[in-house]
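hey team, just a heads up i'm posting the complex here instead of the shared drive bc the drive is being weird again. everything in one block, sequence lines first with there labels, then the predicted structure for the whole assembly after. its two chains so it's a bit long, scroll down
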Amino acid sequence: MTMTPVAASAQPAPVEADEDRPRKVNAATADDRFSFAACFIGSGALVWVVYDRLLPFSGAFGFIVCWYFAFLAIYVAVTAMSQPRPIVVDKLAGAVVQGGALVVFFAVLSTIVYTFVEGRHAIIHLNFFTQTMKVTAPTAPLNQGGILHAIVGTLIEIGIAVIVSFPLGVGTGVYMAEVGGGFARIVRTVVEAMTALPDIVAGLFIYTVLIVPPISLQTGGLAAACALAITMVPIIARTTEVQLRIVPGGLREASLALGTSRWRTVRMVVLPTARAGLATAVILGIARAIGETAAVLLTSGESNFLNLNPINNPMNSLPLYIYHGFSSGETLAKERYWGAASVLLVLVLVLFVTARILARPRSGRS
Amino acid sequence: MSVAVTDSTTPVDDDVPRSIDRGLPASDRAFFAGARVVGALVLVLTGSIGLFLFLQLVPTVHAYGFSFFTQAAWYPTYRQVGVLSAVVGTFEVAAVAVVISVPLALLTALYITEYAPRWLRGPLVSLVDLMAAIPSIIYGLWGFFLLMPRAEELARWLSAYMSWIPIFKYPGTDPHAAVTLTSVFGSSAAIAGVVVSMMVTPIACALMRGVFDQAPIGEREGALALGATRWGVIRSVVLPFGRSGIIGGTMLGLGRALGETIAVSLILSQSFTITIHILQRGSNTISYLIADEYSNATVGQLRALLAAGFVLFGITLIVNMIAAVFITRSRSGAATEI
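-- predicted structure starts here --
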């Protein structure tokens, strides 16, 4: 109601030159806006007196909650004085919907802002990105040591996981969407079932199979990448299939009618058409995997030195660094892991924006 | 055919039509074979995980008896290994998350499709998608440092004034006491559920928004033409049309909430008591149990953890399958009839 930019035509203006402009049917009238503002201020004042002064309560959270409910009540009462019941219900529903949406958007933004506010101490130091914690104690000041090992570890693990899971996932998606048949239905059933596999169980599976004695792989990048790949393959396969099914059948038929083979149809027509959607889906999958802690926690081990070898020695990663920093309870570690959380969030944001940019031309063209 | 035979001068055998299907070209045969091999590989890989987990149930039940399902505590050194408290806790956390996030997701989806100005819709959709992409460990930190101190106050208030509702009761504490250690109200299943709801909301919201967007424009306009308010359109067209989407989104979110590990383990402190008092400090979930116990488990205990993982996987699988049924229905247009 207040969101709509209100044109000057809201008031019943006298006959003038711009009379033939159509009236905005959804625009708020002066009455609407005034009653909204009055209820907003009035309920705030009432709650301040009752809640903050008369009753033994305090705290911003309770104040805002009470304010909101008092606002709803007064707003309903004020509207009911001049409007019939359906409009009162409409106003109430509008206020509830906008309030709920506001809570969600506030929660997301507060998460992002809070992460950067808490991480600001660490990320202004250049050494935070170029050094490791190998020779630095957790209690050392922030101008020593850094999280290079965790950043590099994350990139290596994600890199291996993508190299493994991308061909498998996209291949399976192509198989399910373009080849089909009875066997493909079985594959689809199992793949869809495996998207329900919780990440921690995937990590535990890799831990049991690869790290516990018979195979005795060292905890490290490779094991972590395997655990990540296990969680990524079903998701990539399913999103690939969904994206390929969106490609209009007419394009396929036109290609086949020109005498093209099925393989060339898939390679030259179907995949290029779905490319933007595929890239978006895969990048969002990577963004999800980058912050994945549960699977990595069981498989990669913890280290404080730079390790480029995924097979030998543990390899740290950003989420794991944050998790162990949190568990240690050290004050300066706190600023460091908040810094790592900021870096992680920046990585996710970069991937996310890339995905948005890739997705844009598709929606613009069609 | 018989006419052609009598008129024809050529022998009968030549009249059989030439086969025009020359089979697939080599490239296609290779493509189909390759795709099938990849599909089979993924089938074996992923299927074997499910099978492997399932097979761990047998030695586990054999070793610890049926009390694996009925025993609350997980003290492997005393040969007490049970998942009951973890299963109950998992459901409590997930239930709190769903109860909080489904109304919020519904309102947000309605706001984006019905109320937001057109220029704002794209950014808001992106914001909800971004919310799904934020790592769960960051939500965990957010929950621990920003939310928990405030939630402790709220929990104290709830247990003080709402304790006539059994789940808000906190036996053994006096919330009206002049000086209370508010931290006894922290680390509870309820707070963990609130944090998990941050991860559930975008998933449920994205699905609901997609379904609401598809509500038939003709019926919307019909409702408006009959004099419906904006809420009238929502109530009589959008919500009935999107009912399957709402249920599907709820179930999909529930599936996500059940498996969440890290945010929960940052918030929760472990306890094996089975209680319906969700404000009570300490609870347990299956994923937290695994994260907590794996590192010093023997082979037998590892099997038990894998079996617990299978229980979690089974629950998530059932929930996701129910979600899939409703999501398919919401997309098939079956919900158009009001």
